[in-house]
């Protein structure tokens, strides 16, 4: 993970830092926060219903109306210029629809439409509604609030085995309205595995782990450390109620990166150092272990070591299928040779993309995530500014998602949540801030001349400034 920063480590204040400037008026404008709130609430509403023969979720019904409009507006440039991630997501959706039509022609419309709505609905909603750092901070606060409010529901479910929201909905006895069912997985550590509003405990845990970094880091200049620490602990506790090792380790991984950021904040090459340290430690594990390094780590960190063994077997079966059908994948068919006692899901989002849609489908979605992480580390931002904090928090989130999605298969609401989180930071590629900050004593005594020899340079000279002492800017990739 590479995050660019300046050599100046002091946190800027409102008195010394000029507001960030954006490169396009489209990205500078604030998005529709009402649509963002409605979308998140729709994603956590645990009901389903049918319209004719179509299976519907609140979020799917919402996206049915919003996605066509958002696609048109995005192509018009209403949310800023088109960027690489937009093209990668568009290709992924197009290739996914082609492969579904090949393998499931009788269900091509319903399968491809529902999956495309899940991907585009989450991603484009974020692109349209999170268009500056203020929108990002609002999202971080709202997302964290939603997760914290889920804590008493998750705690009750873990202690009593009763899914509170589902029971409330069932008590209403609404005709045609269904809710999530209890998966009845065996408890761990004496706790029932909470689902709260999702079809699976892992899905709930992954959703609950999301706001850790974007809240604690992204709101450093808005909230005091005590408030951020308490809220973050509640978020982690909520995630823990799923009693799932993947999501919980995702939250802990974010905490570790945050701790590293705080400890090494004065070191200009902190993220390059982390990359080299991580590579070195993994090399040691790979050499010292008699198994694949990632598998060795997973088996030791999982709540149930047997889970890691099971996932390793799934990985081997899935990889063999990808080798047999590398271009158009295998669709949603059960993989040949898979034992009857094994479920058809692969417990690995990245592997599932390769198996279902072939290498093109996998590479396109992986490229969207990798490009976002790498591109986020480029450009010059004042260390400690709102934009810098948003970028660091979002990059930490993406790194954690990259790892956690290798332990879970996602569908329905969580599918949209993941792409909502991916889209939440795309505004960073359409905005910038001044290369330097100016304090009152650095302001020239006499005003600048508005006149230049060349009219074309007037705008340039107005924005040109001289860095103050100790404000040498460095780039880290």
UniProtKB/TrEMBL annotation:
UniProt KW keywords: Membrane, Plasmid, Transmembrane, Transmembrane helix
Signal peptide as annotated in the record: none
Region (Disordered): 1-26, 436-477
Biased composition (Polar residues): 1-10
Composition bias type Basic and acidic residues, residue spans: 436-448
Keyword Transmembrane helix: yes
Membrane spanning residue stretches: 31-49, 55-72, 84-102, 108-126, 138-155, 198-218, 230-263, 349-371, 392-411
Coiled coil: none
The protein's name in its UniProt record: O-antigen ligase domain-containing protein
Organism: Qingshengfaniella alkalisoli
């Amino acid at each position: 993970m590479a995050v660019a920063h300046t050599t100046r480590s002091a946190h800027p204040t409102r008195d010394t830092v000029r507001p960030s400037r954006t490169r396009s008026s489209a990205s500078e404008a604030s998005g529709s926060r009402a649509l963002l709130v409605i979308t998140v609430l729709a994603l956590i509403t645990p009901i389903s219903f049918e319209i004719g023969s179509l299976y519907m979720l609140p979020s799917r019904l919402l996206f049915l109306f919003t996605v066509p409009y958002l696609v048109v507006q995005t192509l018009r440039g209403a949310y800023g210029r088109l960027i690489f991630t937009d093209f990668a997501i568009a290709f992924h959706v197009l290739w996914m629809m082609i492969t579904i039509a090949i393998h499931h022609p009788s269900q091509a419309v319903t399968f491809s439409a529902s999956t495309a709505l899940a991907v585009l609905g989450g991603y484009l909603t974020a692109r349209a509604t999170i268009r500056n750092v203020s929108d990002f901070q609002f999202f971080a606060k709202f997302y964290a609030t939603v997760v914290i409010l889920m804590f008493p529901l998750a705690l009750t479910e873990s202690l009593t085995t009763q899914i509170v929201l589902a029971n409330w909905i069932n008590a209403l006895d609404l005709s045609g309205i269904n809710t999530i069912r209890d998966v009845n997985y065996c408890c761990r550590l004496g706790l029932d595995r909470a689902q709260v509003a999702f079809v699976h405990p892992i899905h709930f845990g992954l959703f609950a782990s999301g706001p850790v970094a974007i809240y604690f880091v992204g709101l450093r200049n808005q909230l005091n450390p005590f408030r951020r620490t308490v809220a973050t602990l509640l978020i982690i506790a909520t995630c823990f109620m799923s009693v799932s090792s993947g999501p919980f380790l995702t939250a802990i991984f974010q905490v570790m990166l945050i701790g590293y950021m705080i400890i090494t904040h004065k070191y200009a090459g902190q993220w390059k150092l982390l990359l080299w340290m991580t590579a070195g430690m993994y090399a040691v594990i790979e050499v010292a272990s008699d198994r694949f390094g990632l598998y060795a780590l997973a088996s030791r960190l999982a709540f149930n070591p047997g889970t890691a063994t099971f996932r390793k077997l799934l990985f081997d079966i899935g990889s063999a299928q990808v080798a047999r059908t590398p271009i158009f994948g295998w669709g949603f068919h059960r993989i040949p040779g898979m034992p009857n006692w094994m479920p058809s899901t692969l417990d690995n989002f990245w592997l599932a993309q390769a198996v279902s849609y072939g290498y093109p489908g996998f590479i396109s979605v992986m490229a969207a995530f990798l490009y976002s992480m790498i591109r986020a580390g480029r450009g010059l931002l004042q260390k400690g500014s709102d934009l810098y904090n948003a970028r660091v928090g979002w990059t930490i989130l993406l790194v954690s998602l990259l790892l956690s999605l290798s332990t879970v298969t996602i569908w329905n609401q969580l599918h949209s949540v993941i792409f909502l989180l991916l889209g939440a930071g795309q505004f960073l590629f359409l905005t910038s801030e001044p290369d330097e900050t100016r304090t009152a004593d650095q302001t020239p005594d006499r005003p600048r001349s508005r006149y230049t020899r060349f009219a074309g340079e007037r705008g340039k000279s107005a924005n040109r400034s001289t860095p103050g002492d100790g404000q040498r800017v460095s780039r880290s990739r």
